[in-house]
Amino acid sequence: MNTENNSDSLFAIAIHGGAGTILPENMTPELQKEYEAVLKLAVSAGYEILKNGGSSLDAVIETIKIMEDSPLFNAGKGAVFTNEGSNELDASIMLGETLEAGAIAGVSKIKNPIVLAKEVMHHSNHVLLSGKGAEEFAASRGIALIDPSYFFTEKRFNDLQRIKNSEKTELDHCGKTKDSKFGTVGCVALDKNGNLCAGTSTGGMTNKRWNRIGDSPIIGAGTYANNKTCAVSSTGWGEHYIRNIVAYDISAMMEYANKDLGSATEEVIHKKLKATGGEGGVIAIDRKANISFEFNTPGMYRASIDKKGNLYIGIFKK
To answer: Of 94, 178, 182, 289, which residue is the least packed, with the fewest Cβ within 10 Å?
Structure first.
């Protein structure tokens, strides 16, 4: 999905809610409507900020907060459970104008991790904070710490039990059930001032152990933005996104190989990532407000409002 226009004051926004084995036969019409409703609500909220002259940063933050507050997605309220039965959340944000970035990993008492990532970017000398230290920083910035029980949802807890029970009979080549790897939310936006921003938030991998951290809080892997090229948010099997530096690679192909957005995202997701066994997708937007959705899985929750104001919502394969 790509369009082109060189006029001034372009703005547009795109979001994702995770990629994976998302098939029509596994989803009721009622549940599909629930997903579509939240996707529409989130992308519309960000678009209104951009339409009214707001920054891409504000649009990305507010959009992701809506998805973090929904139990439908693996971020915030809907975060998956670790092997120990807890929730460990990651998030990151990056500005294309200055290349400033902030990220947090392994927090369990932050209602909206994307907000804390922004605080790290703006009010610390660091890019990535983790665990208790990140939560101490949050408290110093006036962000309320919540009881971890907030993140409990019966569906996610049952998912953990199902995966634990199936480990002896339904293992993939890495020793974990395949669907446990997927789930993230993200947003990319271009504002009227020509500034790009990307943000990503996740609960990580179901049944993860040892404080595992995926690509979502890793700048260049799960999130990247550069006004010269594009803004990218990733979703998929995080280890492969880290190894392939997926988000930055898309930008680099545009900057150094003169690839357009569609060609760069297609090559990275369907060739480079796939070649190493990686699965998932990306959303991306360039400085001309062209939008690209690419994924090599059966589905990816996604939505956008383009430079012409057209709303798009998708879940299953194109």
So the answer is: 178
